[in-house]
Amino acid sequence: MFQIVRCTLDASGKVVTRRALQPLYELREDALAMAEFDSSRLWGDYGYDEKRDCWWATDSRGSMYRFEVEPAAMEDIVMEDVAA
């Protein structure tokens, strides 16, 4: 299982917050496709960062984000099963 993690970046590009998004995805490719979609919805520039293997975006206020795809933590998987 994979999850998308939205990272908010400061002006120097350092991560200041990380937020795991729902739902979880069985395939990494599906999570990457949704990360692309999420990055495109911020009303700013966006693109794929090959070096970090993630999507990045800016919003209309100039805030910067990364959408990283990571293996889901076991507790996230259990919580999703309970919610279903």
Short synopsis of the structure:
By secondary structure, the protein is of the alpha+beta class.
Structure description:
With 84 residues, this protein is of the alpha+beta class. The protein has one domain. Strands 2-1-5-4-3 form a five-stranded antiparallel beta sheet. The longest helix has 13 residues, at 28-40. The protein contains two helices and five strands, in the order E-E-H-E-E-E-H. The chain starts with a strand and ends with a helix.
Order of helices and strands: EEHEEEH
Helical content stands at 25-40%
Largest sheet geometry: 5 strands, antiparallel
Q: Rounded to an integer, what's the Rg over CA atoms? A: 13 Å
Principal-axes shape call: globular
Strand order of the largest sheet: 2-1-5-4-3
Total domain modules:
1
Give the mean pLDDT: 91
* Classification by helices and strands: alpha+beta
**Extended strand count:** 5
List the total number of helices: 2
Q: Any low-confidence stretches, pLDDT <50, length ≥5?
A: none
How big a fraction of the residues is strand?
A: 35-45%
State the distance separating the first and last CA atoms.
15 Å
List the helices and strands and how they pair.
Elements: E1 2-9, E2 15-25, H1 28-40, E3 46-49, E4 54-58, E5 64-71, H2 74-83
Antiparallel strand pairs: 1-2, 1-5, 3-4, 4-5
Identify the notable features of this structure and list them briefly.
84 residues; alpha+beta; 5-stranded antiparallel β-sheet; 27% helix; globular
